[in-house]
Amino acid sequence: MAGVLIKCIRMLKSFGKYSDANNLLKAEFPALESALGKDDLQVGYILFEHGQVYRKLGMGDDVPTLETAILIFEKELGKDHFDTASARMHLGIGHLACHQIQKALDLMKPAVDRIEEIVGPEDKAVVKALFELAEAHRIAGNQEEQTRLLLRSIEVSKAAYGPNHPETANQYMSYGEMLRVSNRDDEAAKYLELARDIFVASLGSGHLMAGHVENRLSSLHINTQLWSKVESHGLTCLEIYKAWYPPEHQFLGHIRAKLARGYVGAGKWKEAKAYAEESLVTLRRYSQDPFLPFCEWSLNQADTHLA
């Protein structure tokens, strides 16, 4: 029964159904833990899955749950086992969410090293581990180490998955986003467009991942002030997001806010006003959304020029 529960949880996670996974765990786990014993290895694996579910739901119980799983893994599998290292990796991610950055890095760096030792330097598991460690260094403000890890994750992904695989595109997107935030616009555009092209070729032009890259490209060109590109990338992203998200979703408000800013830059005041107003209807549903002042500025600019 424990094995079936673990398979069900992993399946629900793969579909992004974390609330359903949490409800199933709450319903089934207490009886299983009672029957198997608190220190049983299968209990450890269930806790390992539940910790990841808690983190995705932002429930705050992921750290103690993963800590318990690690204790079971260390006892039953050993401190150097792959699953023990993987659990430490996830615990580090949990500490990141709690802003305990050094604690996270102290867990994640040796976990990545151990994962690489076990599976080899060109395994798919290494791609994920490098990506998560790079994210930790991003949060810590260590851009040099973040850059090194992202470039390495690209090379490992090309070897493990192939150069035109969506996972490799995901690494390109992450590296391109880092370049965008660093105002290295030309380099950022190169990597983001490469990621977009791979997603479109492998997953289809309407896939959500293609939309996420178009979103980043619209942000990039607000910075470069190439307003026609803000419009083209923004409209493409909007159409994709409308197919994947409900009308009131925050991401739809964000991309409309970017379009409004692009239309202000281009002097297209009617379009700027229309998109800003529609964006504000969405974003005012969310308290203190960071795009609200940005969007209100665009609306004020449009109203001033249309008056």
From TrEMBL:
One protein family per Pfam: TPR_10
InterPro entries reported for this sequence: TPR-like_helical_dom_sf
Source taxon at top rank: Eukaryota
Keywords linked to the UniProt accession: Repeat, TPR repeat
UniProt key word RNA-binding: no
Gene3D superfamilies: Tetratricopeptide repeat domain
Name of this chain's protein: Kinesin light chain
Organism classification: Eukaryota, Viridiplantae, Chlorophyta, core chlorophytes, Chlorophyceae
